[in-house]
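Final report, Chapter 2: Outcomes

The project's central promise was a pipeline that accepts a single protein chain and returns its three-dimensional structure in a standardized token representation, suitable for archiving and comparison. That pipeline is now operational. To close this chapter, we reproduce one record exactly as it appears in the project archive, with the input sequence first and the structure output second.
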Amino acid sequence: MGEGGEREEPARGDQGAPRKPRRRRIALGVLLAGLALLWTPECAAPDPTGAEGEPFVWGQDDVWEALEARFRRSRTRCDALDLALRARLDALDATLDSLEARRSVAPDDPVWQALEDTVFAAAADTAACPEGGEAPGHAAVFVERVARLRGVAKDVSARWDPTDRAARDRLYRLLYGSRMATEEVLLQMPPEAMPTLTPGVAEPSGAPSTTIHGIRVHSGDILVSRGGAPTSAFIARGNDYPGNFSHVALVHVDADDRTFRTIESHIEVGVVVDGLERYEGDRKLRVMLLRPRADLRPEDDRFAHRAAEHALAAARVRHIPYDFAMDFEDPETMFCSEVASAAYRSEDVQLWRGLTTMSSPGTARWLSRFGVRHFTTHGPSDLEYDPQLVVVAEWRDRDALLDDHVDNAILDALLEGAEEGDEVGYPFWKLPLARLAKAYSWVKVQLGGAGPVPEGMSATTALRVEWLRARHGAMKARVEEAIARFRREHGYAPPYWELVEMAREAKAATE
């Protein structure tokens, strides 16, 4: 016993002594393995080819330069321009009268190019002398004429094939071009004189309604808007027909108490139902109200309300995550445009008859880095050109409008770089922290909440969003300095093509 005891004790000591170091080594190994996993980059997916198609290109740098030169000349002779400009605006009205009378006009009819030229020339003179002429002033008359042009163009285009490239190009030139011209005029006006609301067509509807900021809004109406984040500019600009909108919300008005709601999908939380206060609480650089044409279903004036009811019921039945892939055919997850298209599809109304496409390889590659997998989809900006929808009203203010233009110019410059091979970066050293934040966010989602990394978004994608925000912010600071210099030197706000050049210079300076 004694000998055995003397032999056993050292044995226990000999066996026990290494245990703590061994446990430490195991713990250290596990820790290092965990860190290695946290640091391991995502597997790189093959670069997408993008959609089948070709991006629209204005290819009119000489035209923009000529218009700016005309604008500078006109600023020195506003009194002499009054009668000529009024005559030009009256001629624009006469052309629209003729188009309304003809009704059926092909996309390649020469009248459209003549109309475009007239609008751009009138815009240059109006921007130079926005408050000239008789009341209400040249700018107000010009904005009213362009609003009428929009209505006529959408009415005529209802007879065009929405998938025909010539038809899409013509409608884009007319609507986006006239919008661009109008906003150049608005940005040259004194801030206090610029109208916040631009009324469109008070299209009749049998759906329940309420009044918001003096405009009657019906259930089934669609609100398209532009957010203030760099990703919002990316959504608006990253397609074959760069536009001004990044978000879609479907309106629901209760038939009994006339309560206003929106059904919309947010990156952070997926599909939600919100009221007016929440909708207006999210920063928006512009908002447009669209409504289905009354003659779309002349025998049934409540189909739009049923579409809104469908979306409301779907949002209340289950949690619908945000669809980063942009697959409008998969109802399990939904992005913002899909909420509206799915609702109207339940009523056999196909919105987006002309689909949004992202054909440029560089743009498609960048979009894929943010989770997009479908490059033929439903984009917010294209609703503006859908002839099935009427523009009821648009809201914008001067500061937000300038921000919108600056953000667009920066994204245009960044996407030019993408076509030249620039890649989306991210702060690699933050990857472990981002993955821990993603794990925390997953737990929050399971408990019915939302974490710092949105559901469906990877940690790496979240870091890429951060990279885009930082890159955009650095460029914007330089562009704003360039705008201030331009104003001091020239005495007016720089037009959009000047902003793009400023953005290119800011990009080169921040690389």
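Archive annotation: The first strand starts at residue 197 and ends at 199.
This record, like all others produced under the grant, will remain available to the consortium after the project formally closes.
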